[in-house]
Amino acid sequence: MFQDRIPDVFEKLPVARSRRDVWTALMPRRRRAAFRAGIPVATALADLAAILGVAALVDLAYYVSMQGNIPAVSTSGSFELSALVGLFVLLTNLVREDYSIETLLSDRPHLKRAATVWVGAWAIALVIGFATKTTQDYSRLVSLGLFVSGLPALLIVRTVALGVVRRAVTPASASINRIHLVGYEEDIARFYAHNDAEALGLRVIGTSYLRRIDPMGDEASRRAQMSEDLDLAVSVVRFLRPDDVFILVPWSEAADIERCIDAFLRVPAALHLRPGSVMDRFPDLKLARVGRLSGINIGRRPLQAGELLLKRTLDLTLALVALVLLAPLFLAVGVLIKLDSPGPVFFRQKRYGFNQQPFGVYKFRSMKVAQDTVFKQATRNDSRITPIGAMLRRSNIDELPQLLNVVLGEMSLVGPRPHALAHDRSFENRIALYARRHNVMPGITGWAQVNGLRGETLTDLDMERRVQHDLHYIDNWSIWFDIRIMFMTVFSPRAYKNAF
User: What mean pLDDT comes out for the span 414-422?
Assistant: First the structure.
């Protein structure tokens, strides 16, 4: 099948009659290649220059304010520390391809990503300094100045880089990728309807339409018609010299795609297959290799053994420490609940956990005890909520007993919030990919909750937005992402939004 031939799609040099012809043909591509290679290098060097420049200024300010003179050799360790942090920033950004033109042109939260990398790099530097017992070699005042001043400098550099790239890469610029579309009329129309080439940083320089083959016709005439269309399309592509050719024929038309691949592998352009609407459902598709088998990855697998160990270690450590430190609070809350209304201190309800396994989630009881066993979601100004319960829910204190679930291995500190069984069964049939939330351990807090997506779900759209945030967390998990969410849970005002 044509899918097995994807790794064999390579660009070929054009046929030319002399070296001068080859140079003339390749000159536009050389300029584009130089531009595309130069932007990541320039952006990375700008980040490093900003970090080292801030270090020099902080060092200067420190010596002038503290000693009144500038020594010949710095003894604050600012250069070594800034170089170490800068190295971590550059390596992380290179691994995540944050310096590539495609990333800079995308709608990703660039400034948030840069800030996250900055904080993470400092955390690593501090761990290394603690482990090697070298933290005393650096001035604390200078280190604090570097951390506080370096982040704005890094954000300014990233903002400037985004502006420069987006101004330079326009449909009229020579550096933009020039593409040619090939497919049936309805598929090309769908591409134009769902994609803005200018917003994608592309320029469509040509389109070749393939005629639908009469299914009742004989095989010879069908092949002749397709060959005629492809010969014409190849001639147009050779004349226009695009950088990339996109075949928009649906993957269900395997035989036609085979013919397109055979035709366009002969032209000097990169060849791409775009299988219709599936691309729009999964915007972060990646070509992955498992053993010797290649495939398109549309969702990451559950966490690996090392990642699970790291996450579980963090969960268990923080949960045990929190339970010890919060023991007086638990006791006080238990007394208040008993004085407020009759009933147990804790409320336990069945929820679905990892791999849709049911477990009992612990919470402080915030409602009056009722005989009605039918689940009903809490609403604003719900008469069932007790006065103490309202306070507990607004402050998220009612969720703290779930630390016991974390210790028992039924939950994590961070993950998609578990919903009542009735909710799970209802929304699983109405919202696409809802069940993917159970591919990881549920959490006390999550990416949806710290973004204000909590409380009552009046419509399917409310739950869809929550699920989208949960899936973003699953597909982009890292230990730093967990730490960030825990920090936001405590300090972000949005984490307390819609709490009632």
Answer: 85
Arithmetic mean of pLDDT, 435-459: 82
**Is the separation of the CB atoms in 157 and 47 below 8 Å?**
yes
Cβ distance 447 to 482 under 8 Å?
no
3-class secondary structure for 251-318? CCCHHHHHHHHHHHCCCCCEEEECCCCHHHHCCCCEEEEECCEEEEECCCCCCCHHHHHHHHHHHHHH
Q: Please state, as a whole number, how many other Cβ atoms lie within 10 Å of the Cβ of residue 422.
A: 13
Q: How confident is the model at residue 331 (pLDDT cuts 50, 70, 90)?
A: very high
pLDDT at position 145 is 82
By DSSP bridging, strand 244-247 and strand 202-210 are: unpaired
Smallest CA-to-CA distance from 208 within 172, 180, 170, 174 is with 180
- What are 460-492's pLDDT values in tens digits? 777 888 888 888 888 888 888 899 899 888 888
Q: Is 3 or 219 the better-scoring residue by pLDDT?
A: 219
Contact 207, 188 (CB under 8 A): yes
| Lookup: tokens for 204 | 């469509």
Orientation of helix 479-491 relative to helix 110-131, angle to 10°: 110
pLDDT in tens, 223-238: 788 888 888 999 888 8
How far CA 417 is from CA of 39, 122, 420, 423, 478, in Å, comes to 41, 30, 10, 12, 18
Among residues 241, 174, 231, 258, which one has the least CA distance to residue 206? Answer: 241
User: pLDDT band at 4, cuts 50/70/90?
Assistant: very low
DSSP code, position 455? S
Residues in the chain: 500
Long-range contacts of 219-226 (CB under 8 A, 24+ apart): 226/256, 226/259
CA distance 290 to 283: 21
Q: Give Cα separations from 311 to 346, 378, 388 (angstroms).
A: 27, 31, 33
Exposed/middle/buried for 446, CB within 10 Å: 0-12, 13-18, 19+? buried
Q: How far apart are CA 87 and CA 95, in angstroms?
A: 12
Task: State whether the Cα torsion 317-475-151-51 is positive or negative.
Answer: positive
